[in-house]
Every structure is written in structure tokens, then in C-alpha cells.
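Mods, move this if it's the wrong board.
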Amino acid sequence: MARGDSVSLTAVAPGLSAVTVELGWDVPSLTGTDFDLDACAIAVNQRGKVYSDQHFVFFNNIQTSDHSITHTGDRPGDEAIHVNLAALPADIDKVVFAVAIYDADSRGQTFGQVHNAYIRIVNQTGGAEIARYDLSEGSVTATAMILGELYRNGADWKFRAVGQGYVSGLASVAQEFGVNV
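Not the wrong board. C-alpha cells:
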């Protein structure tokens, strides 16, 4: 997929009810400073704002209160987030997936130094990859990136490749969607 492309997940995988969203990357090993990237998911209502602060899922809040979105934990090089599409409240319009570099400003790190970043959508039934977006190049100044989003289209679920960078880290992504940080 290319930036801005969309694919109907339910057309590719009829009966789809749950997915695993895998986000991955390679970081340089010769910088002298460790990179720590963190993935997150933000469930958004029809007004474009977070459904509730509990629906901002990241390393410090690994699960929504309704258990529809679960982060599997912080891992170097890749992280996974499970989304039970059938369990999401009906007024959640989309789920946005971002990756941020932890403590990027003090470490002088940006996505310009991150290579091979990707997001892929995997059907939890059977494990087949349904969609994948490879970020062709990282933003030289961005410290957080929205890689993609799952969104409703009537009764169907679609995935859109986003690739949008933010220079103020995870806080700027969270604030855009009205998360109290």
C-alpha cells in the first residue's frame, strides 16, 4: 500500500471480527544512545475525538475498560495491538495507530533515523496478513508518526495508510484527538 491508500478489510476477509495490528521498525545501532519506540492506539468517535481517556491505549494503559483494544506490551523493534472489532462500541468511528520515540527531544532522535517502519493488519482467525503499509522514508523532524487507521464504512471495516509525522512526540498526537495528557 502507498500513503493515503485504503483497503476494505471485510471484503478481503469476510466475517472478520478481530485483528492484530503489528507495528515495527529498525533503529540505528551506532548512535550511542538507545532508541525506545512506543506504539499506541486511539479509539475515536464520530466527532474525531478520543472516545474516552480509557480508549487511549499505550504502554501505561494497555487495555480499554471494555477489553476491545489490548496492547501486548513494550518490545524492541515491534509491538502489537489486538482489536476486537465486534466488541468496539458502535459509536467508535475509527482506531488510529501511532508510534512515538520515547524521550526523543533530549536524545536528539527523529524518525529520520528510523528505518523500515511498517504497520500490518493480521486476521486473528488464521493469522493471515490482510493489509500492510511500509513507510518509505521517515520524517527528518518527526518524533511521532501516525502510521495508519482502522475505520468504519457502514457495516465494513477499512484500513487507511496514513504516514503523518508530528514534531512534538506522542503528546501532540494525543492532544490532536482530545486525550487529556
